[in-house]
Amino acid sequence: PSADDLAEEMEDVDFEDEGAEEPDAEAWESEDDEGVEDGMEAQDDSEVTFSLHSASVFCVSLDPKTNSLAVTGGEDDKAFVWRVSDGELLFECSGHKDSVTCAGFSHDSVFVATGDMSGLIKVWRVDAKEEVWSFEVGDLEWMEWHPQAHVLLAGTADGNTWMWKIPSGDCKTFQGPACPATCGRILPDGKRAVVGYEDGTMRIWDLKQGTSLHVLKGQDGHQDPLTCVASNQDGSLIMTGSVDCHAKLVNSATGKVVCVFKMESVTPKAPISDGEDAESNSVESLGFCNVMPLAAVGYLDGTLAIYDLSTQSLRHKCQHESGIVQLLWEESSAVVYTCSLDGAVRLWDARSGKMISEYRGHSAEILDFTVNKDASIVVTTSGDHQAKVFCVQRPDR
Q1: Which one of 33, 129, 290, 299 has the lowest number of neighbouring Cβ atoms within 10 Å?
Q2: 72-130: pLDDT as tens digits
Q3: Helix, strand, or coil here: 126?
Q4: Is 312 a member of any domain?
Q5: Which one, of 379, 300, 368, 307, lies nearest residue 339 by Cα?
Q6: Rounded distance, CA 147 to CA 263, Å?
Q7: Number of neighbours of residue 365 by Cβ within 10 angstroms
Q8: 291 is in which domain, residue-wise?
Q9: In Å, what is the CA distance from 123 to each residue of 9, 101, 316, 332, 357?
Q10: Residue 380: beta bridge partners?
């Protein structure tokens, strides 16, 4: 038997050596390591890199219950559920035929949903690693789980918002204007949802009745497509952002606009024919602080604006070299996180407007990111085909 063992060992060695004789294959394999040898390791602040995607990674979510699992979806038509601690794959959410642009866990981490651009949505039971439901809608714009129930909402390019009970599949639709439902958010009470549309309108829907409670359009609405919506912790205030560079603060009970935040420095809009103007700007992301009356708005021109809600005025402008893709507030402090087209994650103190820290590691733009509950890690996805986990524990805790 020892001779057999030896023979097996020899085979292994041969095999490995063979690989080494093909420098090209080897170079491709260890591209990442080579960068490290060239003294680039200083640039990668991440703890874990997940690299099973073979194209841009568009979306990431953490499981709400333990924050130990991530789901990522990408341009390679794939979605993966993996462990944040070591990047170990738990299972692949297979069967998508188009870029996976939406992915997220249910409120109790029992289910994970993945949605692709063509509108195929699949739901998997996490512990069993098996698909329990799927449905096909029109081209998918956004998708979100209900904060307290196994209910999934999605907005599509035909203007509809869909709501399903999972896994039974009982379904309701909310018909918007005949243009894409570009963004949406379920309000914290779980009874209403706010949906923004490409024609600049916004609707607040009653999820139970299926009726529209408030519609903002014309002067009250936006002049251009909505890009993002957010609500404060108790759902009393909604903020909408748009390609028109305005962010509107809306009272969710009355549907009335409380105030409009405009960027003073915005260049006047070019005529439509020059739609591709390099000067274009838009609101890309926004959110409310939980611990102070502050809101943050991130713009494509790289401006992070911190607004004071009590005085409805601009408190700080934090400038980025390149466009902001997304921003998130820490759950229990006045710290706001941004990710941008330059591939960095930055933490800002909203009280002082100063940058606290910066994390790098991606070789392309960051396309999505999320922060865990205790704000100790950030998980990012990028055009460099990778997802990364950064530890952001700060000394002042």
Answers
A1: 33
A2: 999 999 999 999 999 999 999 999 999 999 999 999 999 999 999 999 999 999 999 99
A3: coil
A4: yes
A5: 368
A6: 32
A7: 18
A8: 48-264+279-391
A9: 44, 14, 41, 31, 37
A10: 369, 388
What local confidence, expressed as pLDDT, does residue 15 receive? 43
Helices (H), the chain: 2-20, 23-29, 31-35
Report if residue 16 sits inside a domain. Answer: no
Question: What's the pLDDT band for 2 if we cut at 50, 70, 90?
Answer: low
pLDDT tens digits, one per residue of 217-264: 999 999 999 999 999 999 999 999 999 999 999 999 999 999 999 985
Kind and range of the H or E element at 303? strand 303-308
CATH number reported for the structural domain that contains residue 59 in this entry: 2.130.10.10
Residue 151, exposed/middle/buried by CB under 10 A (0-12, 13-18, 19+)? Answer: buried
Q: Look at the chain and report how many structural domains it folds into.
A: 1
Is 150 within a domain?
Answer: yes
The Cα 173–Cα 385 span in angstroms is: 35
- The answer to whether position 42 is within a domain reads no
Listed in sequence order, the residues at least 6 apart from 88 whose beta carbon sits closer than 8 Å to its beta carbon are 82
Q: Which of 1-10, 157-166, 323-332, 360-369 has the lowest mean pLDDT?
A: 1-10
